[in-house]
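Please fill in the sequence for the structure shown.

STRUCTURE ENCODING:
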């Protein structure tokens, strides 16, 4: 009879229960067995907790974050290269394409004309120079942001909106200073619309170097006399524009990340923490959530800095049109106001949104995924 009762009791036990012997007594004890999911979760948590906080100033972290940033920039720029070509032509008021500016149909017609005149490769005109510039630019930008954050934001309590804004702004200024000449060359290549007799990279560099220095005063330094300063044409508005653009971009992305990782949304927006993730890292966002965060970041930052971007483009191509006179910021502003009024500062903003939103979304997504894969 006792054996019958024991057997019937065992039949009612959950399938994940083991019967084990208590070495201290002759009685049997019942102990639930961990499911594979809970065991994996506990093992992952223990592995993450056992890792020491990473040293963001180490060579290992520097090269990993640099590679992640560079790849993010290349991926983002490649998917929007055709739109970037058209936007530059609109912003710089190209005589051949000015008639298309201001409408979605105009964007399509401009791309169609480029395709007819130059073939499919025309839509990627200047893209090789873009990639040559964007890898170091994005690598420096993301790397600088991580390094500056580590200095300014030393604890979660100090992670304020202002500190995030300052970190992003300084990172943007750092990256643009080192890569601006490549940006100028890229814009010049993209601005050309001739089917025959296209300028080579060497020709463009020689042309920029030898352009008129009128309008820059009587600087006596060798750098201005040599023409090297021409490679920084439009650098001042770029520098000014980068402060709000990069700062607002990183601030918005990080703030959106906090919102999407909040307790009510986290079950739907976050992924399990990888086993190789540093303990201080936040849970990664799902793909759609990361893309959403980056897209909103791109829209907000583009709006805040677009007028300065228009001024910069006009100054960059100033030597390629007219008499080569290098205009100051105030002169460029006056010309834009005279030609199109206040709306002239927002020419191409619509296509700017179409380009920047997916570009920034892909950039942050690629960067975060590479960080996860590289274990930083």
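FILLED IN BY: designer on duty
SEQUENCE:
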């Amino acid at each position: 009879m006792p054996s019958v009762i024991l057997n019937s009791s065992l039949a009612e036990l959950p399938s994940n229960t083991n019967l084990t012997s208590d070495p201290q007594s002759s009685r049997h004890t019942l102990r639930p067995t961990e499911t594979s999911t809970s065991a994996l979760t506990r093992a992952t948590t223990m592995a993450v907790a056992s890792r020491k906080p990473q040293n963001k100033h180490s060579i290992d972290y520097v090269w990993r974050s640099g590679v992640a940033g560079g790849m993010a920039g290349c991926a983002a720029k490649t998917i929007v290269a055709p739109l970037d070509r058209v936007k530059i032509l609109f912003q710089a008021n190209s005589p051949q394409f000015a008639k298309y500016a201001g409408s979605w149909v105009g964007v399509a017609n401009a791309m169609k004309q480029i395709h007819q005149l130059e073939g499919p490769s025309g839509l990627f005109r200047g893209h090789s120079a873009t990639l040559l510039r964007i890898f170091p630019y994005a690598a420096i930008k993301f790397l600088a942001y991580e390094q500056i954050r580590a200095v300014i934001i030393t604890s979660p309590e100090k992670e304020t909106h202002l500190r995030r804004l300052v970190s992003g702004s300084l990172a943007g200024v750092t990256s643009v200073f080192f890569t601006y000449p490549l940006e100028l060359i890229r814009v010049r290549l993209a601005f050309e619309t001739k089917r025959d007799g296209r300028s080579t990279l060497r020709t463009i560099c020689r042309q920029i170097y030898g352009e008129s220095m009128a309008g820059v005063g009587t600087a006596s330094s060798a750098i201005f006399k040599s023409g090297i300063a021409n490679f920084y044409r439009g650098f001042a508005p770029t520098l000014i524009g980068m402060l709000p653009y990069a700062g607002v971009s990183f601030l918005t992305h990080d703030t959106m990340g906090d919102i999407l990782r909040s307790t009510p949304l986290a079950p739907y927006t976050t992924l399990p923490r990888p086993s190789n993730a540093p303990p201080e890292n936040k849970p990664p966002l799902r793909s759609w959530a990361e893309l959403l965060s980056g897209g909103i970041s791109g829209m907000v930052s583009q709006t805040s800095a677009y007028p300065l971007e228009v001024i910069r483009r006009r100054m960059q191509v100033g030597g390629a049109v007219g008499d080569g006179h290098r205009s100051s910021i105030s002169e460029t502003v006056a010309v834009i106001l005279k030609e199109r009024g206040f709306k002239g500062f927002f020419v191409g903003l619509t296509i700017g949104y179409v380009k920047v939103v997916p570009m920034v979304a892909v950039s942050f997504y690629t960067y975060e995924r590479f960080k996860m894969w590289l274990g930083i």
